[in-house]
Amino acid sequence: MSERQTFQRMLIILGIYGAAAMTAGLVISQRRLPYAAGLILGLVMAGLWAWDIYLTSDRAVDMEPHQAELHMKKHSVLHSVIMIAGTCLAAWISFPAGLGMIIGLLGLKAAAYAQLIWYRRNNNEQKQERRE
To answer: Which domain holds residue 32?
Structure first.
């Protein structure tokens, strides 16, 4: 499986997660607009974060090990700072917006775990086919 397929599947899973989180949030939340805006912003940030991780790891493969490690650490710190600043700003504007943003950003975590499950399932099926 190529890295591009993995990235595309993560975006699909992120979209499904976003639809489920939006539906649940709109049913539960009393302040729907700030929640929806925060969730959409969080999902967009999660998608951009996944894209940057994809590009960063692709660039790091062509570097020396020490340079690659520094490159990955630098981008990791940058991601964390942007995520924390964006969430604090959204929460300062409105608590439901901040909550929606956190839930949206957690979508990247859900997409990564779902992608891992998807990969393991397909890998086990391929091993069984080879045995037969």
So the answer is: 3-122
47, 2 contact by CB (below 8 A): no
> Is residue 36 included in any domain, yes or no?
yes
Residue in this structure with the two tokens 């894209």, named with its chain if needed: 51
The Cα–Cα gap between 2 and 44 comes to 23
- pTM score of the predicted model: 0.76
CB-side neighbour CA atoms (13 Å) of 6: 19
- Residue 111 near residue 10, CB atoms below 8 Å: yes
Domain count, the chain: 1
For residue range 59-75, list pLDDT tens digits in order: 877 888 888 888 888 88
- For 29, the enclosing helix (H) or strand (E) is none
- CA–CA dist 78, 76 (Å, integer): 5
* Residue 111 forms part of a structural domain: yes
The CA-based dihedral angle spanning residues 35, 24, 52, 41, taken in that order and rounded to the nearest 10 degrees: -20
Angle (CA) 57 21 105, round 5°? 30
